Amino acid sequence: MTRVGVVGAGLMGAEIALVFALGGLEVVMTDLNDDALQRAMTRLAALLDKGAARGLYTADQGRDALARIRPSANLSDLADRELVSEAVFESLEAKQAVLRSLDGICRPDCVLASNTSTLPISTLGAALAPARRGVFLGTHYFSPASRMQLVEVIPGFDTDPGVVTRIGELLRSVGKAPVVVKDVAGFAVNRLLHAMLIEAVKLVEEGVASPEDIDAACRLGLGHPIGPFALMDAVTSDLCLQVQDILHDAYGERFRPPALLKQRVAAGYGGGRGRPGWTGGKREPSNGDSQA
User: Fold this and answer.
1) SS3 of 107, please?
2) Rounded to two decimals, what is the model's pTM?
């Protein structure tokens, strides 16, 4: 595969495009919003400058990678792609709408991949014609995708095993470490992660320890690069609550979101850019934040 497409120019979509461009592939990055495309290209240029300054690659290599990303507001520009990765926001309806559009645009042998963190792949694949489902699977990247190596590869009920092998080889060729995970809600990493996040919030609810001390305990005692509360501030508690609602629907009481998390999100203490969070908006140094 040498021609790749990405749908969605948000944080994840843009960085997925960057991963493939740095790997030498030609990328078309689409979004319905021209402003979003421009912001994404500006952000990627800044990321590449930082990477060159850190010695990850030369300035020329960074410029060449950016030149391999072609922004477009037209999905039809994906018609000649060999792989298209959908990276719109975490909504079943939105993702299925994109997949239905791609089904009618992309060549029959084009592999379609969804960067969902929680939604079952076979449920998403129901939006596709039966003939397309054999070349559809999930590829769950972690944020920031340009730095985090792990990608969960999730075959659906109808995914051809050969497609899983091809995508694994492609991901390894661009510096990623794929792991194959069964198609269940939350896959593997988010189930592990949110079990920890729920218990961390319960420790605060019960007055066992402060968010700052729990973060320090996880970093210094468990060797985690970032504590659970700093992580929730980075990815936003809003997103964590959304994921936990999905997991709770799928698995019951063990993933019920804590009352304190719901209360803080409703009060606007979700973290993220420009909003207060658990750690007062202060980010811990880390080698890369995981995506919830």
Assistant:
1) coil
2) 0.88
Nearest residue to 72 (alpha-carbon basis) of 167, 2, 4, 1: 4
What are residue 56's phi and psi, to 5 degrees?
A: -75, -25
Classify burial at 116, counting beta carbons within 10 Å of its beta carbon; exposed 0-12, middle 13-18, buried 19 or more: buried
For the stretch 172-194, pLDDT in tens is: 999 999 999 999 989 999 999 99
Beta bridge partners of 83: 4, 111
Spell out the SS3 assignment of 199-213.
HHHHHHHCCCCCHHH
User: Strands, E, within 3-162: which ranges?
Assistant: 3-7, 26-30, 69-72, 83-86, 111-114, 136-141, 150-155
- Cα-to-chain-centroid distance, residue 100: 21
Burial tier of 26 (Cβ tally within 10 Å: 0-12, 13-18, 19+) = middle
- From the list 112, 138, 26, 11, the residue with the least C-alpha distance to 71 is 26
Residues 6+ apart with CB under 8 A from 99: 86, 112, 114, 124, 125, 127, 128, 136
Domains of the chain: 3-180 (3.40.50.720), 189-266 (1.10.1040.50)
Residue 275 CA: distances (Å) to CA of 85, 205, 281, 282: 30, 21, 7, 11
The token duo for 283 is 């980010």
Residues 228, 253, 137: CA angle, nearest 5 degrees: 70
Q: Which residues are catalytic?
A: 117, 140, 152, 190
Q: Is the peptide bond before 144 cis (omega within 30 degrees of 0)?
A: yes
Contact between residue 75 and residue 102 where contact means Cβ atoms under 8 Å apart? yes
Q: What is the pLDDT of residues 114-145, one digit of tens each?
A: 999 889 999 999 999 999 999 999 999 998 89
